[in-house]
C-alpha cells in the first residue's frame, strides 16, 4: 500500500474517531478492492433508498477523477490519435482513467421488467448473475445488514467466486455471515449509520485512486 493511501485511512480516523474500531475492516476491504483492480476485475455495488444513492456516489468517484488528475496512458493516447487525429486528440486530452464499477440500482428498464415478471427481491441477484465474473467484487450496502435483495445478491456473488464486502450498521446481521469482510460502523439508527457510511466509502475511493493514479 502506498504511503498516501495509508494517510487517507489515518486522516479518516482522525476526523471520525468513532470509526477507529472499523479501521482493520476498512483496510481489509481496500485490499480486496485493490487486488480485484490489479487483476482487471470490476466492482458491483447495490443498496436500497439512501444506500442506492451511496452506490451511485461510489461509482461516480471510481469511474472518473476524484481528487487526482487521471491522465490517459501514452499508448492509449497514441491509439486514439492514430484512429482520428481530431477526435482522438480531444479524447486523449479529456478522457480520464477509470476503476470499473457498476451500480445495480440504476437500470430502470431491466429492473422493472424483472420485478414485473419475477421475484422483485432477486433483482440485484439477477444483475450479479449477468455482470459478475470470477474475481469481481460485490459491495453490498445495507444499514441493517438484512436487506433481502442485497443478501440474495451476496449469495449469488459468492456462487460465482466473487469477493463480497458488506457495509452495515453495528448490529449483528445476516450480511456479515456471507461477506468476506463487513465494515460495521458504530451506529444503529438508519440516518446515523448512513452518515458514517459516506466517509468510509470516500476513504476507500481516495485510497484506490492514490494506489492506481498517483
List the helices and strands and how they pair.
Blueprint: H1 3-15, H2 23-38, E1 43-46, H3 50-62, H4 74-83, H5 85-94, E2 101-103, H6 108-117, H7 123-131, E3 137-141, H8 148-159, E4 163-168, H9 175-178, E5 181-184, H10 190-213
Parallel strand pairs: 1-2, 1-3, 3-4, 4-5
The topology string of helices and strands comes to HHEHHHEHHEHEHEH
What is the first-to-last residue Cα distance? 12 Å
Widest sheet: strand ordering: 2-1-3-4-5
For the biggest sheet, the summary is: 5 strands, parallel
Number of helices: 10
- Spans of at least 5 consecutive residues whose pLDDT stays below 50 are none
Oligomer: single chain
Helix content: 55-70%
> Can you count the beta strands?
5
What is the residue-averaged pLDDT? 97
Residue share in β-strands = 5-15%
Structural class: alpha/beta
Rounded Rg: 18 Å
The general outline is globular
